[in-house]
Queue: 3 jobs
Job 1
Amino acid sequence: MKNDLGQSRAARWGLMVSFVALFALISGLYLPGCSENPATSSDTTLSQDETSFFDEPFDELVFARAVELESTIDVEVLYGEATFTTMDGGELVVGRTGNFHEFIIYPGAIDSDVVISMEIIKVESKKNDDVAVIYEFKPDGLVFSVPGELRVNVAKLLGKKKTCLKWYYLNDQTGNWVYQGEYCADADGIATIFVDHFSRYGAE
């Protein structure tokens, strides 16, 4: 297993950071909390009066145009990779103790041995502590016969008052984020998100 904060990856994500800062300044980024009621997941309908970063189309070209803007956010970039086998599956843990991102693949869920990676960018507003998190899993398009599981500590990831997170999938063809549902923490504070294929996802 390999955990690293590669400079080249951090530089690439720097473009994203600048865009997020621009979006926050222009449109007033509002990342709402979620229900305090514990549950595995909820329906996929968002209230019409809620707005978020994930309501906007994702355009990497915009990042480059915004790169010179002054940042009003804190950003954390994490990267990890590990080899998974068809017979054994495996797990990849990225992050610090307590504030981690753990991805689990079960035995037999993949057709062949593969090296997977998980890249994470966490963006937090310096003004109001709103948080958006983007996950990029590789190899893109990898499909599991049994869904993989992403496990995160919700309060550590999004803030002490948060017990749930909203989960999004990026449709590469349209550039739009697609709301996938709400996942709430268990008694240990951990939310488990089920992932059936690799792509780019987001949480708030």
Job 2
Amino acid sequence: MSLDALIDSLPPSAKDLKLNFSSLVRNNSELTPQQLWGTVVATAIATRSESLTAAVFADAPGHLSPQALEAARTSASIMGMNNIFYRFQHLSSNPKYSTMGARLRMNGLRGHGVEEVDFELWSLAVSAINGCGKCLDAHEKVVREKGASEELVMAVIRVASVLHAIGVALDAAQAIAAPVPVSVA
């Protein structure tokens, strides 16, 4: 199913999400196409919504080069790992953990082949979905040092928030429509 068809199929309770999707994705003027669609891809993966991710991947090749599509996937994958590790270090009350190195491979942070600001924006968006304050601060700092405005950062976060909410709405609609298994004692 195409992404537009999936969005159009959202239940009435997601009317605001449809409107926000239209203004933030269909009619976006704040982000370059690569920034926008890389954010859509990376955040769709981060939502863990199968139907949303499948629909995004059906449409993304029309908006992203194969290299940018792979970089967005890499961002989501690496942040899926890093957000857990660094969120643990940040939230643990034991100060020793924050002194210990990650010792995790993160080569994808360097060899992705797209504009560094774009990759960092995607990583920032995924970190917002995954709730890692340490990664949010780190990626926001990098994009700001590379010249991205606060308005650009907020544009990416808006897209991430709407994509995440769409994933939630889709998963809820699918759960409600699915028959509830009855256990026989």
Job 3
Amino acid sequence: MGLKSTLWSLVAGWVTCVALSAAPMPDELRVALKSFQAEGTKGWAFTQATEGEGQSLLERFDPRRPEFQRWTLLQKNGKAPSAEEARRYTEAQTRRSRGETAPNVKDQIDESTAENVGDDGVRTRWRFRLKTTDEDDRSAAHMMATFVLHRPTGTIEEVDLASFESFRPVLGVRVDEARTRIEYSLPDGDRPTLLRRITVRLRGRAWWFKSLDQSMTVLYSDFEPGRRR
């Protein structure tokens, strides 16, 4: 399903002004990225609330259940699903389970383009251009990824993937803005870093007349360990 981001992501308002400057990737960031997983720490059950384009879904994921029964539809558009909606949802789980792991943007960053774009002593922000790793990928060359590192815990707290110019991923389609922001909780006691929120924003047109404008927010809550620790 699509992910979203809002306009306030366009302005990363810093209290202190930091000039953009190319710099080597610091060891603290390299270490954090080595263990970073875009989908968050695996093995935890959670509730996922998705809202966008006038629709909403409330779902529950439990890794302790059989593979194609791990996702349960709790609500659709604020109501318990009908029998038909529940049936269609269950049928869709085969495709969903096989594609459960999200792509990891850290594998596409071009380290030679590293820019420090903010540092308040507790959090530091590093921005990178992306490399094209697939010959069919017509988006990466127009995107930048910003990682927010929480220094005291060595945790990647936020990833902001954003276009810096318009581009045409396929014939007849122009993307004017594409932005995905992924936020993670900080580790606390025996609880690791976990997904907290994803926001996605897309602005563009198809064949000059059809709007592609979309926005969506995904919230994560009610985490439980999927296995005994």
